[in-house]
C-alpha cells in the first residue's frame, strides 16, 4: 500500500498549524513544521534569526528536515499522511528573499514528490506575528505568491483552501481527497 503524501502549505499566519492539529486530532498522521524547531535551536545558541544571518545554512537544514519527513512518510502505515509544508517551500522562500541556492534544491523537488498540495491563502483577520514569525502581513502575501509559483513550477496544481473555521478547512481538505 502506497501512503499518499499531502502537503498543507501557505504563507506565514494562514492557519496551517491549526489545520494540521485538527487533522491529527481526527486520527490522521501528521508531520509538523520543521522550521520552528530549527529556529528554536538556533535561538538557544544565541542566533535570533538564523534565516536572516545564514539563509543558505538555514535552508539546507530545512531541506534536510523536509526530505527526512518525506522518507518517514513512506514507512507510515496509513492511507495518507499530512505534512506541514513540503520541499518546494524551501525554494519558494529562497526565491522570495532573492537568495542564491545550488541546483540541488530544485532537483530534490522533482525527486521527493507529493500526491496533493493544499495552499491556505493569506487571511488578515487571523494573521499574528510571534517569536518565530517576523514577517508583516504584506510580506506574508508575497510569500504566498512565491509558494504558489514554486509548486506550479514543480508540476503541482495547488488546491486553495477557503478561509473559515478550522474544522471547515480540515473537512474541505478531506472532501477533496475522497
Automatic annotation (TrEMBL):
<feature type="domain" description="NadR/Ttd14 AAA">
    <location>
        <begin position="5"/>
        <end position="169"/>
    </location>
</feature>
<dbReference type="InterPro" id="IPR027417">
    <property type="entry name" value="P-loop_NTPase"/>
</dbReference>
<dbReference type="InterPro" id="IPR038727">
    <property type="entry name" value="NadR/Ttd14_AAA_dom"/>
</dbReference>
<dbReference type="Pfam" id="PF13521">
    <property type="entry name" value="AAA_28"/>
</dbReference>
<protein>
    <submittedName>
        <fullName>Predicted ATPase</fullName>
    </submittedName>
</protein>
Amino acid at each position: 500500500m502506497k501512503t499518499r503524501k499531502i502537503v498543507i502549505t501557505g504563507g506565514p499566519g494562514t492557519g496551517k498549524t491549526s489545520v494540521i492539529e485538527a487533522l491529527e486530532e481526527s486520527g490522521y498522521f501528521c508531520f509538523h513544521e520543521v522550521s520552528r524547531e530549527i529556529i528554536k535551536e538556533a535561538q538557544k545558541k544565541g542566533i535570533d534569526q538564523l534565516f536572516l544571518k545564514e539563509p543558505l545554512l538555514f535552508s539546507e537544514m530545512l531541506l534536510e528536515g523536509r526530505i527526512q519527513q518525506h522518507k518517514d512518510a513512506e514507512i507510515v502505515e496509513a492511507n495518507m499522511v499530512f505534512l506541514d509544508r513540503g520541499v518546494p517551500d524551501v525554494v519558494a522562500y529562497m526565491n522570495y528573499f532573492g537568495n542564491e541556492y545550488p541546483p540541488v534544491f530544485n532537483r530534490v523537488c522533482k525527486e521527493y514528490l507529493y500526491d496533493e498540495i493544499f495552499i491556505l491563502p493569506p487571511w488578515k483577520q487571523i494573521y499574528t506575528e510571534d517569536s518565530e514569525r517576523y514577517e508583516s502581513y504584506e510580506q506574508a502575501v508575497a510569500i504566498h505568491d512565491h509558494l504558489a509559483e514554486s509548486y506550479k513550477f514543480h508540476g503541482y496544481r495547488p488546491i486553495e483552501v477557503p478561509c473559515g473555521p478550522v474544522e471547515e478547512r480540515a473537512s474541505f481538505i478531506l472532501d477533496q481527497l475522497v
